[in-house]
Design a protein that fits this description.
Elements (H helix, E strand, L loop, with lengths): L4 H5 L4 H17 L4 E5 L2 E6 L2 E8 L3 E5 L2 H6 L1 H7 L2 E2 L4 E4 L6 H14 L10
Antiparallel strand pairs: 1-2, 2-3, 3-4, 4-6, 5-6
């Protein structure tokens, strides 16, 4: 994914970099209407100028940030999957298969819930 090439190049572990690129490609394939953007040095996807989902990488996990409202919406799924999370992000460990169904649920919710949103973040 060319748009995020600089971010991806900054991920030292090649398997982590490859997985992150696969996730970004999956998002573009399933949600071609979402725009890839870099803001605050973080890759994210937006829809009509509003934030949908963002990412950051660390040694132990890929953090996915969908906004607090969305974390609350999928909290039971997060707990069932056993992921660590805060009110703003979910940590997807590198040593486990990536949970695309949870990612899809968050993206779908944000697209639906923010369909008429005119700001970047929810108010």
């Amino acid at each position: 994914m060319e748009y995020f090439a600089e971010f991806l190049a900054g991920i030292d572990d090649p398997t982590h970099r490859e997985r992150t690129e696969e996730i970004f490609t999956w998002i573009k394939d399933y949600y071609p209407n979402l725009e890839p953007e870099i803001k605050w040095n973080q890759p994210m996807f937006t829809d009509h100028g509003t934030f949908i989902i963002g990412f950051s990488a660390s040694k132990k996990h890929l953090a996915v940030a969908p906004e607090a409202v969305t974390i609350t919406y999928v909290e039971d799924d997060i707990k069932k999957a056993g992921f660590e999370y805060t009110k703003e992000l979910i940590r997807f460990p590198w040593n486990q298969p990536f949970d695309y169904s949870l990612l899809e649920k968050m993206i779908e919710f944000n697209i639906w819930d923010k369909a008429n949103c005119t700001t970047f973040w929810r108010k």
